[in-house]
Amino acid sequence: MLHPDLLQPLEPTQRKAVQEIARVLQESGYECYLVGGCVRDLLRGMPAKDLDLTTDALPQESRKLFKKTIPTGIEHGTITVRMLGHSLELTTYRTEGSYTDGRRPDQVQFGKSLSEDLCRRDFTVNALAYDPISEDLVDEHGGLDDLKNRLIRTIGEARDRFFEDGLRPIRACRFLSTLEFRLEETTQKALSEPEVQKRTAMVAIERFTDELRKGLKSADPMPMLLEIQKSGLLSVFLNRANVESSGEALTDDELMFQALANQKSNNSGDTRPLEHGENRSLQALPIDVKRKRFAWFKERATDIENSSDWLVDIRVFLWLHSLFPYSNSSDLMAILKRWKFPNHTVQCLEASFLLLDALDAVGMKNYTGWQRSNGLPEIRKSLFQLSKVLDHRLESFLLTWQAYIQCIAPEAGQMKGTLDALNSSYTSDPFRIKDLALSGKDLMEMGFQGKQIGDVLQSCLEEVWKDPTINTRERLIEFLESTGS
Ligand code: ATP
Ligand code: MG
Question: Which of 126, 123, 110, 119 is nearest to 34 (CA)?
């Protein structure tokens, strides 16, 4: 089927690069097609993120035809071709052999035809190919219809295709959010098949986390998160510890995971009263606000430093916290470490717990009729605790949360006031040891030693949280003398 305008959404030099690579290969007697996610996205009128080409030429043959190539994944038949300032991946047609690790075929076999290559792909909408020279669109699996109907459907029997590669179920879930499509019925049913889930349990955890992170960057990660949970895939990953140590007695850590995996989630709108010490701020939000906040958040936070990392990190926190509202920060940090999330995500979760505690503590004081100023020492103390977790990233953390809280206003008016106070205190108040007018060196000169120095600095700091005006050398020395230090 001819499709003359398909490359239109590409930048002119990108378009030329695609056509040039295809021309060179075809003039040497090979076939060459654009294939996979990029064709799908171009058909949706979107500029493709990565451009993948497929050919019957073997990697060593293709390498001879282009000036600049990089052997990116040569054992899988992939090279990168540099053309007009762009990098394009060129992969030899493949068929796939048997899978024993639930993820990667035991050996890569090069295929003879485009049809073979399309058959090994995961979903119909990802198995479209386009010849950039003849402008012919190849659709052998009904991908165009599914694209029109916004459906994710496996090629062939869903259960078999998921069983072949345990990552595919996770990909199916994340396309719900990145493409905003729905799952075709049998594809969706297969996600919950016990045999399929056993395979998914064997997938390298980093691959799961990569897909999860991709979905969390989308405008609305909720459809992905809900499907992961509904299908039982979430429990598979929470239970990973047990799979990895099969046969051996469970450690405390593993028992905790099992308990979490079986813990009833809060997405049904749990309204039981909170017990002492539980975070209230997020609990208090009505369920539809919790849903909305994921979407709103993206628009507002774009001008903050590293906003895309913060976006994912705070969403991870919001998700786990709403799933397990009665778990503490170290339980949830353990999940993230187990899932090999980057450190900044783990730190963000820890800091977000501290922040919610601060919002609760200060908010509660304001609520009970205290003046705002009475909450300030608490605010400075919170900033100190937060800076111990986040260091120089504290400022962008606070700004991102401020953007987020603005999104959920007016439901969160109280939280907003406290967060604004945290932000202004961050810029104007001393709250860390290094902000003190007395240093460890000064104390040493005054005769303090060893552990004493840390204790004295800490007591000065606590005094300064209460009243920043005493943060001068003279007044701190006065304070130390008055305490008999
Ligand atoms: P995105 O736009 O998010 O990158 P994508 O579909 O391009 O989505 P990639 O991981 O870039 O996803 O993969 C490129 C193509 O490779 C897919 O469109 C699909 O045809 C094929 N593919 C990727 N992963 C698998 C898999 N696990 N099983 C079968 N085919 C796959
Ligand atoms: Mg891609």
Answer: 126
CA dist., res. 347 & res. 352, Å (int): 8
The three-class DSSP label of residue 136 is strand
Query: φ, ψ for residue 329 (rounded to 5)?
Result: -65, -35
Q: Kindly report the average pLDDT of the chain as a whole number.
A: 84
CA of 324 to the centre of ligand 1 (A): 32
Instruction: Please report which ligand is nearest the Cα atom of 33.
Output: 1
Which residue lies with its CA nearest to atom 13 of ligand 1? 37
Q: For 192-214, write each residue's pLDDT tens digit.
A: 999 999 999 999 999 999 999 99
CB atoms within 10 A of CB 410: 6
Tokens of 114: 């485009």
The pTM (predicted TM-score) of the whole model is 0.85
Rounded distance from Cα 218 to ligand 2 centre (Å): 14
pLDDT recorded at residue 274: 39
Please answer whether residues 399 and 422 qualify as being in contact, where contact means their C-beta atoms are separated by less than 8 angstroms: no
Residue 148 pairs with which residues in a beta bridge?
A: none
Is any atom of ligand 1 closer than 6 Å to the C-beta of 177? no
Does residue 122 surpass a pLDDT of 90?
yes
Residue of 38, 51, 117, 121 best suited for mutating to test ligand 1, as the one with most atoms within 8 Å of CB: 121
- Confidence class for position 326, pLDDT limits 50, 70, 90: confident
Q: Is the separation of the CB atoms in 193 and 164 below 8 Å?
A: no
Nearest-angstrom CA–CA distance, 152 and 122: 10
Specify whether the CB–CB gap between 301 and 359 falls below 8 A: no
